[in-house]
Amino acid sequence: MDYIKRDLERKFMHMSSAFKAVMVVGARQVGKSTMLKHLAEGQNRTYVTMDDTQLRNFAQTEPKLFLQTFQPPILIDEVQKAPELFEEIKIICDNSDERGQFWLTGSQSKKLVKKAGDSLAGRLCILKMYSLSAREKLGIEPAKELEFSLDSLVARQKLFPANNIVKTFENIWRGGLPDVQEKDEEQFGEYFNSYIETYLMRDAVDDYGITDSEGFRKFLRACAAFTGQLVNYNDLGISAGVSGVTAKDWVKVLQSMGIVFLLEPFASNELKRLTKTPKLYFCDTGFCAYLSSWTSKEVLVNGAASGHFYENYVIGELLRNYEYGRNRVNLNFFRNNKMKEIDLIIEENGILHPVEIKKTASPDISMIKSFSALKSAERQVGAGAVICMSDKVLPFDKSSFVIPSGII
Questions:
Q1: CA distances (Å), origin 190, targets 121, 193, 291, 347, 386
Q2: Would you identify the CATH topology of the domain 8-129?
Q3: Which class for 34: exposed (0-12), middle (13-18), buried (19 or more C-beta within 10 A)?
Q4: Contacts of 118 (CB under 8 A, 6+ apart)
Q5: What is the pTM of this model?
Q6: pLDDT tens figures, 120-155
Q7: ω before 83 within 30° of 0 (cis)?
Q8: Residue ranges per domain, the chain?
Q9: Rounded distance between C-alpha atoms, residue 167 and residue 174, angstroms
Q10: With 202 labelled, which of 75, 80, 375, 397 sits at a CA distance of 20 to 30 A?
């Protein structure tokens, strides 16, 4: 498979020019190492991986000697396996003004981020990487970031193929892990079965001390059944034969691994929320589809959960957009005591953008009625949108748009 250009490349190189060390974290097999090795081509940059047993033992027992042997500029893969290196990296950074000396990758882990952050405070930039987006698969790189204005959306639409339900659900069902993009349905299933056994279960035992392997496997499948819904830890626990407390801990483990993310409810002093419970989504819809036993895109698109999967897909694409972009945003959902719900609120530069996500090609004005609930937030409310299967950008009114999901 040819190399696929990643949207994170721009941000990574920009941060490498400003920080002495940059670390990319993310779930297993999302393409972290591949991207950094690609970016290092033509540079005089040493590459070492802590997957190599001899190198790992050398780094763990003699970190100072290791970094005398393999001097910067250097790319260290799977650095979480040799955290002893961080103190030596700090010393080298402090003795030089060179930027981008250390490029690091690590599987997503709170322990890794904390250890690296504590040791390399002010010297290290940590970036998060997800599996391939639909846009990356197409090889489309818009010059401008996503903006909620009619002119910008219409210009963006011209770069993308027309929305297509078959192609959309192919993207949802297959997901974005690079290694599954060219596999057939039988290979797809075997890949994810191996992914669970080779990576997730091993990490769950080695890094998080989870001994109930069978219960954890059941828990993974239970989480997939709850995608796009409010988290109910007791129900998740019952599905896996564990307590609600253990279920909550295991969700945190899956978050730490980069398998799921939680969308928190929006609230402000003026706008009280009805629920404090987050919604659960998978970082990769292909893995979620496998866990849910959706054996093909045709079965998935016609299944009862297709709306939840579509919502997960759209929010995942937006998450990638903003994670790799220039501006930081807050993503939340909204539900008030009058049962008004908004699927997503994007808060950018203090402005709230309400978004509804619907698996329909014919949205109607009733879908944006809940946006009025934000008027009492005493915050500036910007343009809103219904992101859906429509084939073109259209204005609902002066401040709300129909946006085809294929252009985000």
A1: 41, 5, 12, 40, 37
A2: Rossmann fold (3.40.50)
A3: middle
A4: none
A5: 0.94
A6: 888 999 999 999 999 999 999 998 899 999 999 999
A7: no
A8: 8-129, 147-407
A9: 10
A10: 75
